[in-house]
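Write out the bound-state structure for magnesium ion.
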Amino acid sequence: MLSIENLHAYYGLSHVLQGVSLTIGEGEAVSLLGRNGAGKTTTLLALMGYLRPRPGKIEFRGRDISRLPPYRVSRLGVGFVPQERGVFPSLTVRENLTVAARGGARAPWTLKDVYKLFPRLEERRDNRGNQLSGGEQQMLAIARALLLNPRLLVLDEPSEGLAPLIVEQNVKVAFDVADRHYILAKGAVAFEGATADIRSNDQLVKQYLGV
Ligand SMILES: Nc1ncnc2c1ncn2[C@@H]1O[C@H](COP(=O)(O)OP(=O)(O)OP(=O)(O)O)[C@@H](O)[C@H]1O
Ligand SMILES: [Mg+2]
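---
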């Protein structure tokens, strides 16, 4: 479904991504791991069209999306929950959700579904975005992305605020949720493998994940 090939990216003169390649198949859950500053967020920003690959190729469902702006990547069915979440502070929970909802024939996610997934959001539906805890904001950002009914959901630090803020926890969540993992180090893929391959490799975990 998604293929990223030899992705390079810069902030000014700083060459941050140095040839990231990865694939995600239909129905697969894949995680991107790595220490602070390894290039995880930058890879996601390039995928979403916020940063231009220089060079690099990004294909989504057979279509080259490397030069598309974010709103067009989103419209093709890539949902994004950014690290800073992007909740509208002056809108209520319900307004944050309904402003995003995109119904239509293939709309498996409704307001009712996301309230069922996150009952806390229904209880807080009349609170404004700036009257929510960090974890509630994270739920709201995920719920809003689901209401766009994406084919691919991209989450940056999804367990932040939902689970204790320690690296070990985040890695555990990734192991529980994803089938396959890419470990980034210094802007390139240092390791790729299934959960069992990483879990059983103490050296790898120590060297790249700092756990
Ligand atoms: N706007 C920016 N301008 C310049 N350098 C940046 C900018 N954003 C990130 N960087 C640098 O790019 C590198 C990769 O950062 P990135 O945010 O992709 O890392 P990350 O893997 O998401 O880290 P974290 O786990 O801390 O979120 C780091 O060296 C970082 O300092
Ligand atoms: Mg990051």
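---
The first strand starts at residue 2 and ends at 11.
Residues 11, 14, 16, 34, 36-42 surround adenosine-5'-triphosphate (ligand 1) (CB under 6 Å).
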